[in-house]
Amino acid sequence: MAGAATRQGEGEVGDLGAARLARLGNDSLQERVYQELRRAISSGRYGSGEVVTIRGLAEMLGTSPMPVREAVRRLVQDRSLEMLPNRSMRVPVMSSDRFMQLTDARAVIEGHAAFRAAQAMTDRGFDAIRDANDRMGLAIRQLDVTGVVDANREFHFEIYKASGSEVLLSVIDTLWQQSGPYLAVLLRALSATPEALPTVGFGHHFDLLAAFAARDAAAAHKAMDDDIRDAADWYVKHGRAAAGHND
Question: What is the distance between the alpha carbons of residues 136 and 108, in angstroms, rounded to a whole number?
Fold first, then answer.
């Protein structure tokens, strides 16, 4: 795992993701490497400004540099990574202004997705959303930081899938990809003080579940907007303070 990433700025969470990345076989290797790294970034496994190298990533994934090189090229095109002059790459730095822009965009688009999901909700879709929320609650009680982050993502994306819109799902996936450095700060803050996990709160998730059970689209939209904005407030209060940010 050593050498997979060089920390810079906020980037002190790469080792959290290293253990979570699956070792890859030979089938569709380039695509699998790309998807694994993309998911790692969007899930906050790498921090804002964290530098990664092709060789380090290849060693971590247990593969040759060639598929990693192609995956990194695509991630640079996606703006998930930035190319540096020394030919290494880094995760883009998350500024306060960019964070607020992402929060506003997410609230609007994901709120609309929740609205559509309530209109189109099926019993199977509802059960998947509720089960993900149950897993998040269990992870909070167990002070399992990574489990909370993973279950929260699953909860949200089960909702977005239930909207029935591939366009919305693609846009939201891109927004979450760009929000990875923000999640990295939360991971670092919570890993340092896991006892703070219960303060994260996920009460709006129950508001969402109630709205979906009632097929109340307007209530679902409001609950999603509140969830995203309250999470942003928690980040400003806890995450950025833990990261030493005052901007």
Answer: 24
Same domain? 36 vs 142: no
- H or E element at residue 143: none
Would 247 be classed as within a structural domain? no
pTM over 0.90: no
Residues 26 and 140 in one domain: no
Using alpha carbons, select from 212, 13, 8, 181 the residue that is nearest to residue 99. Answer: 181
- C-alpha 217/C-alpha 65 separation (Å) is 48
Residue range of the domain that includes 9 = 5-90
Domain boundary among 59, 90, 121: 90
CA atoms within 13 A on the CB side of 224: 28
> pLDDT tens-digit profile of 99-108?
899 999 999 9
Ranges under pLDDT 70 in the chain: 1-27, 199, 201, 238-247
